[in-house]
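Hi U.,

Before I forget, here's the chain from the pilot set. I'm dumping it here mostly so it's searchable later in email.
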Amino acid sequence: MIGESGTSGRPATQPAQACLHRWCALVLVAVGLMSGGTAMAGTANMAAADGVTGGQIISPISITPLLALQFGAIVQPQTGGTVTISPISAIGVTTDLGAAVAITQPILRRAAAFRVTGEANARYTVTLPATIQLSNGSATMTVSAFTSSLSLASGIGQISAIGTHIFQVGATLSVAAGQAVGSYSGTYPVTVQYQ
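Structure:
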């Protein structure tokens, strides 16, 4: 038995060689895992995504006059005074103009009305002038204190779901004592703007 093992010596080295092969395999697997782990860590250092962007074009806002602001007929006064038409067409007078306006009217006294068209449900504001002049040749009367029906409720209008909205405008007319007889007329700017 000694001679057999001493003669060849090979059987005694086979287990050692097998162990060596297994260690090599383990080392190779470990190296593979380490290299694979390094690659995975490298890709985790960066990420990308697509952002979202967009925009919207809405309908332009526009305004159309529907009714004129009418102060009506006034008898020439002996003393000056004012006639006020509110946005809800309520009439107010001062001094002797009460009698001066208490006549049958050829034209209905009323507030002006405007229609705003634009983007459905959008809000808007109205800008009115401070004063304007009505003229009859060289004679004039001043219109001031313009106010809109929007100023009665936060001063902001809102276009309806169908894209329109109507508001009214009133003002105060100043009439001088002995104001020249005749028909007076004038225009005034009304500007609407999206809020």
